[in-house]
Amino acid sequence: MADRATSVRADAKVDRGQTGAPPLAKQGRTEQPLGDRMLSRIRADILSLKLAPGEVISERALQGSYGASRTPIRQALMQLIREGLIVRTTRGYAVAPFDLKELDESFEYRELIEDAAVRLACVRAQAGDLDAIQETIDRGLTDFTPESWFEIGLDVHVRLAELSKNRFLRDAVQDVIARTMRVRWLVANTVEGREAAHRDHSEIVRVVREGNADAAAEALRNYGREVRRQVYDAINGTRRFLGARSFAGGRRGYPGDDEDSGREDR
User: Fold this and answer.
1) Which one of 69, 149, 150, 238 has the lowest number of neighbouring Cβ atoms within 10 Å?
2) Is 62 exposed, middle or buried (0-12, 13-18, 19+ CB in 10 A)?
3) How far apart are the first and last CA of the chain?
4) Bridge partners of 56?
5) Beta carbons of 204 and 118 less than 8 angstroms apart
């Protein structure tokens, strides 16, 4: 235990030296922990494909790339594993490939649980809660980086699910949305994609505000299916430069697929 404590203190000392941070006692209370900063940076690089799906990575290489010691890098990796963006391998770690079978299942699951959550939200939501969500939606048009987009996109759907006042639905939505954020970035990193998301999210909030459960469920379902279609089109567009190691699994197709659309994996 003493050796472990000494190692942690040594890592913290290295981290402060590498980042130019003042001693802990002199840091302001708003200083973001180094582990959180590393998580934000690595996640942003995964979302933007700077770290490609399937790419093998190591703690040592990440330490050199991001200028941090082992402890914050390892903390970030553990969280990214929970988010489904990093996987363990016999050689250490790798950026998770696009698992198309898992993606199919996640979109199916998401449609079911978001339907239940939004119907309850129509009964239980307060006007102030919806106003706050709309402010977050509006921020998505102006505050745009991979990390801020991750937070906003996750926040909108999770906060809508929170309005159901059912913690199990909220947690389920948070998990499944987090696991599809990277592929959604392929669509959202365009002005058109952001404007479409703003429009569709605003419409969902509008019908929830009206308390129209059927309309809210339909709006959320249509949004999810359109995102699903766009995601698979975008994934196919990345195949030329990402290579085979970036993909795993295969698609089953889903209602609304055209047989000649070219989106079904062969």
Assistant:
1) 238
2) buried
3) 53
4) 94
5) yes
Measured distance CA(189)–CA(212) in Å, rounded: 31
Which residue in 203, 177, 198 sits closest to 188, CA to CA? Answer: 198
Residues 6+ apart with CB under 8 A from 246: 52, 53, 54, 97, 98, 238, 239
Would you say residue 233 has pLDDT above 60? yes
43/76 Cα distance (integer angstroms): 9
User: Among residues of the chain, what percentage have pLDDT more than 70?
Assistant: 78
Q: Is 90 exposed, middle or buried (0-12, 13-18, 19+ CB in 10 A)?
A: exposed
117-154: pLDDT as tens digits? 999 999 999 999 999 999 989 988 886 666 676 677 67
User: Do residues 129 and 141 lie in contact, with contact meaning Cβ atoms separated by under 8 Å?
Assistant: no
pLDDT for position 110: 95
Nearest Cα neighbor of 115 from 236, 224, 253 is 224
Question: Would you state the structure tokens that stand for residue 202, as one six-digit string?
Answer: 């605003």
- CA 97/CA 105 separation, integer angstroms: 16
